[in-house]
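This part of the workshop introduces the protein records we will be handling. A record pairs a protein's sequence with a compact description of its fold. Backbone structure tokens are a discrete shorthand for how the chain folds in space. The question running through the whole workshop is how a given chain folds. The record below serves as our worked example for the rest of this section.
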Amino acid sequence: MPKKYRFLLYPLLLNSFFLPPLKADKPLISERLIEFLRNTTAEEQQKGVELNPGNKRLVDALFEGDSLLIEKIANEPETTNTVKKFTKIEALLVKGNYEEVNRQLAICKKTFFQDPNTPTLLPPINNVVMTCDQISAGNYFLEGNLPAWGEKLNNINNTYYPVIRKFKGLGSVDKGYNLRFLEIT
């Protein structure tokens, strides 16, 4: 570096000594997701941890194409707002309306289906956004858009799983076992 520009470097170096170290204000991974993974055994993690929006009944209703059961689950009093959003998506999937499903999943990716007035918003790596991305990947596959499907799966594998595997104290997840699909209850 020429001598005439060195004077610009000195304030930067001095500033680095006086600034506090950078720290994250909020966690990157959802505490609920971490807690769930801590409660799974090594065998379960090796097979693949399966999480379902709502409950097993909702997944079965989707696989059977039973829109009446999906609607019934959505209207149950104990159904949370997030699960209601997923029931709406699953009802659209049963009808084959992938365009609207993809629009709803884009909203999910941006807002995690949370009310903006919620006092504690979810961190960027959470069950909701992972589920939305995986449903989106499935839609690409069902539409026959294999390049987008492969790209979405690659994005999921490179975005979520390395961060979760690096989180200490998750047993076999530290060893790199497979996480398939994550549950929201």
About this structure: The two ends are 58 Å apart (CA to CA). The chain has a mean pLDDT of 76. The longest strand covers residues 179-181.
